[in-house]
Amino acid sequence: MERKYVIRGKKPLKGEIEVSGAKNASLPAICATLLAPGIYKLKKVPKVRDVFCMLRIMEHLGAVYKFEKDYLKIDTTGINRASVPYELASQIRASILFLGALVGAFKEAEVPLPGGCAIGKRPVDFHIRGLSQLGAEIKLDKGNLIVKAKKLKGTEIVLDFPSVTATENLMMAGCFAEGETIIKNAAKEPEVVFLGEMLKKMGANIKGYGEDTIYIKGKKKLKSINIKIIPDRIEAGTYLVLGALMEENEVVVKNVEEEHLETPIIKLEEMGITLEKVGKNSFLVKRGKSIFPVNVMTAPYPGFPTDLQPFFAVLLTQAEGISFVTENIFENRFLYVFELNRMGADIKVEEKTAIIKGPTPLTGSPVKATDLRAGAALVLSGLCAENTTTVYNIELIERGYENFVKKLSGVGAEIKVTESES
Ligand code: EPZ
């Protein structure tokens, strides 16, 4: 059965949207529970496809989990294997995070080499090189990374690029490496900082996370803990852009960690869009009649996040003039442009830059999600387009947006899921 969103556009939206816990903080946090056998309570983990996928892998490894009231309870006292099955791992790239946790805790791991995806090849050479430098022997056998380490020995690792999950993998493995592990050119994303806080709370001797260099002194063992997941800054950015697409200035986004969105908020202000604080971590999105064109360039945190690039492109189709969006992180993150142009946008992609001429009225049409964020961006374009937009491949969007239809309908959007013979 083909499930799709059917959206009736141009409805003025009004009300509050609450941001959930961060998917990309929850995924490494789930893997980190392998580092110490015990019972963990992780609050505000979003119930999205990516999380359930990682939890199915945890069950395969011997863990038991249950969503209780407002927390996810994970019991890792029964972990009895260190190999991740292809049919589960191939559904989610973040399964590579099991590598660092399993090698750290059990000195062995078998994890399928993740495939690429729509937005790029997504290699894992930094992960492999870093773990090898810690003393792990890694070989590729029938598509699986087979990792063994008699012991892990701390050393200085310099990442070619501040890769988020490579940093997270090396943080987890470093917790049990003898001596000191130093990770240079580390990723500084808030989700990396969250993992650092979690590991520290578990008893790891770790510092410097959130800066260029992370220092970890290996320990013999860690302990299980309870922790609350940070808000999802990408989901927050998604709804701030939704508010900016509406001229009526009546959308409030709640549970927004402002300091995690500094660069996108500055960019919105350049476009003539401001956030009025109306409560603790709650913001009313306000804009004038017209939106100003800008230049967006994605970069590692604290630069402009690549994950918000598709949403700003949709917004810039409504700006008065020519805007430039340059994607510097992934090699293929403009696939949604072709779908947007079918709705009436005027975007040309040259090399790594999308040149967007605005304003162009958007009209509803059938479109398909090419990746998680592009799919959500097409939903936003449907909400500000004339007539009806049908979005296909919505499973991709459900990977990262908790209660997406419910939250949008809650502010008056006309959106529903329909099923039809594929
Ligand atoms: C994380 O992916 C996020 N995923 C992505 O979010 C996000 O887009 C990305 O970071 C960038 O911010 C999770 O946290 C689960 P990278 P990750 O390693 O870690 C190259 C979403 O929408 N690279 O920082 O895979 C890579 O090809 C997802 O939730 C290597 O060359 O991204 C890319 O060009 C999409 N070799 C660049 O580095 C490596 O070994 C950044 O990738 C690793 C990465």
Notes on the protein architecture:
It is a single chain. By secondary structure, the protein is α+β, with helices and mostly antiparallel strands. It folds into two domains: about 1-20 and about 230-420, Enolpyruvate transferase domain (UDP-n-acetylglucosamine1-carboxyvinyl-transferase, Chain), CATH 3.65.10; about 25-230, UDP-n-acetylglucosamine1-carboxyvinyl-transferase, Chain. About 30% of the residues lie in helices and about 25% in strands. A four-stranded mixed beta sheet has the order 21-22-1-23. Strands 2-14-16-15 form a four-stranded mixed beta sheet. It is globular. It starts with a strand and ends with a strand. The model has no long low-confidence stretch (mean pLDDT about 95). Bound molecules: ligand EPZ. Ligand EPZ binds near residues 93, 191 and 373. Ligand EPZ binds near residues 164, 307 and 330.
What are the key terms here?
422 residues, alpha+beta, UDP-n-acetylglucosamine1-carboxyvinyl-transferase, Chain, four-stranded mixed beta sheet, 26% strand, globular
Beta-strand percent range: 25-35%
| Measured distance between first and last alpha carbons | 5 Å
Assign the CATH topology of the largest domain.
UDP-n-acetylglucosamine1-carboxyvinyl-transferase, Chain
Task: Give the assembly state of these chains.
Answer: single chain
- Which outline best applies? globular
Number of H/I helices: 14
* Sheet with most strands: 4 strands, mixed
Got a strand count?
A: 23
Which hetero ligands occur in this complex?
Answer: ligand EPZ
Percentage of residues in helical conformation? 25-40%
- The CATH superfamily of the largest domain is known as Enolpyruvate transferase domain
Summed up, the domain count is: 2
Radius of gyration: 22 Å
CATH class of the largest domain: Alpha Beta
Average predicted local confidence, pLDDT: 96
How does CATH name the architecture of the largest domain?
Alpha-beta prism
Structural class by sheet pairing and helices: alpha+beta
Low-pLDDT segments, ≥5 res: none
Biggest sheet strand order reads 21-22-1-23
